[in-house]
């Protein structure tokens, strides 16, 4: 199943970009309220959306190779519960992969960072290093890690703009994440997103 996300409309900031930077911080406590479709759409676009018809995305990528894949685990989306999706930038949509509550396993794989369980949305940012290394060799590893950082910061800034909270998690057991999600790519970040409970 493919779910088309709401189209992105450019909005004027009601405050300065500097204020957005000042407000950005890591949040580890979330309310259980589900995110709106519009909020999910904006977060996905910020992370890895297409910004023009030539295939360039919202983050820089070495050689414009874009080796990343963005997964979303949503507690609730439309009529689905506890569902894993893959973000499809080319048509700004979510591809449904499976429905199963993997949150307890994610928490265990992330060394018991249990606030993952509270967030209505968890991004899992992954990479196929081979795509970039095929052009740049070992230095491609550095370029992929840089790209992951750009994605994470975009999610932070969009979450801040939407009055949501997030945190970048890098402490987890990679192989367990790959088994839980049934993927071959390398996981680089988990980013829970939700309304701050603080």
Summarize the structure.
This protein is of the alpha+beta class and 198 residues long.
SSE diagram, text form:
Elements: E1 2-4, H1 17-23, H2 37-48, E2 68-77, E3 80-88, E4 93-99, H3 103-109, E5 121-127, H4 129-136, H5 139-161, E6 165-166, H6 174-181, E7 186-194
Antiparallel strand pairs: 1-4, 2-3, 2-5, 3-4, 5-7, 6-7
Helix pairs in contact: 2-5, 4-5
Structural write-up:
The chain has 198 residues and is of the alpha+beta class. The protein has one domain (20-194): NADH Oxidase. The protein has six helices and seven strands, in the order E-H-H-E-E-E-H-E-H-H-E-H-E. A seven-stranded antiparallel β-sheet has the order 1-4-3-2-5-7-6, sandwiched between helices. Helix 2 (37-48) runs antiparallel to helix 5 and helix 4 (129-136) packs across helix 5. The longest helix has 23 residues, at 139-161. The protein starts with a strand and ends with a strand.
Give a quick set of tags describing it:
single chain, alpha+beta, NADH Oxidase, seven-stranded antiparallel β-sheet, 6 helices
């Amino acid at each position: 199943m493919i779910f088309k996300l709401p189209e992105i409309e450019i909005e004027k900031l009601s405050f300065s970009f500097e204020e957005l930077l000042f407000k950005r911080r890591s949040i580890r406590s979330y309310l259980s309220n589900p995110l709106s479709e519009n909020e999910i759409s904006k977060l996905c676009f910020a992370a890895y959306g297409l910004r023009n018809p030539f295939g360039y995305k919202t983050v820089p990528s070495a050689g414009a190779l874009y080796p990343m894949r963005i997964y979303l685990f949503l507690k609730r989306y439309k009529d689905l519960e506890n569902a894993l999706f893959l973000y499809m930038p080319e048509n700004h949509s979510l591809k449904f992969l499976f429905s199963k509550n993997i949150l307890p396993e994610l928490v265990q794989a992330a060394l018991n960072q249990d606030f993952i369980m509270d967030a209505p949305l968890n991004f899992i940012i992954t990479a196929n290093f081979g795509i970039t290394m095929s052009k740049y060799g070992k230095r491609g590893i550095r370029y992929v890690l840089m790209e992951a950082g750009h994605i994470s910061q975009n999610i932070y800034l969009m979450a801040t703009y939407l009055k949501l909270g997030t945190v970048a998690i890098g402490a987890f057991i990679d192989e367990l994440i790959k088994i839980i999600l049934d993927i071959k790519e390398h996981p680089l970040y988990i980013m829970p997103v939700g309304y701050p409970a603080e």
